[in-house]
Automatic annotation (TrEMBL):
<dbReference type="InterPro" id="IPR000626">
    <property type="entry name" value="Ubiquitin-like_dom"/>
</dbReference>
<dbReference type="InterPro" id="IPR029071">
    <property type="entry name" value="Ubiquitin-like_domsf"/>
</dbReference>
<feature type="domain" description="Ubiquitin-like">
    <location>
        <begin position="91"/>
        <end position="148"/>
    </location>
</feature>
<protein>
    <recommendedName>
        <fullName>Ubiquitin-like domain-containing protein</fullName>
    </recommendedName>
</protein>
Amino acid sequence: MKIRRVTSQKYLNFCNKKAEKEEEEENKTIGIEAKSFENVDDIMSCIPIEQIEKLNGQPCLFLDEASQSGNKLLAQYEMESGLILSLDRLIQINVRDVHGDLTEVGLKPWYSIDKAKIKVEERCGIPRELQMLTYEEEELDDTMTLGDSEELFGSLWNLRWNCGGGVWSFFWPSYDGSGCSENTGGKKWPREIKDFHGYL
C-alpha cells in the first residue's frame, strides 16, 4: 500500500469553516462541581438529558484528562468537595498487541491524532512512530483532531490504523509486528521495544 499524506484543499476549507463556526457557538463542554459524598453514577443521573444528547456519543465525566466512573464515593478516590468534573464524550478504542492482549484506551474528540498515538504508546507500549492513521490510503495530518476527522470523513469507522503493512479498524486496532522493521527508517529502538514488536 502506498501511503500519501492528506494535504487537500478540502481539509483547509473545513478548518476555515470550523473556525467561523466556533466563533458563533458556545463551548458545549460543561463543568460540574462535585461533592466528596457523591459518586460518579449519581452525578451522571442528575445531568439533564439534553446536555448528554448534545455529545452525540458515550458521555463520561473527566477530572482533567482522567475519565471517572463507578459507584464509589469521590472521597474514596481522595477527591475533595469543590472539584470541577467536565462532561465530555469518551472515544474508546480496544488495542490488541503482539501478544494478543487487549487494552482499552480512552480518547477525547479534541485529541489530535498525534496525542491519540501518544496515548496508545503510553497504554500499550507501541511507539507512536510505528502508528499511522489513514483515510482511503491517505495518511492523516497529526495535527487534525479526532473530532475534525469524524466530521470531515463522516465517521471514525471510516478511518484505519496502519502498521507494518497491516490495516485495522479505528476502534479495534491490532499490531502483530510483522513488517514493522521496514518502516522504522533505520531507527534503533530500545531492546524492550524491539522485543515487543518481534523484529530483533
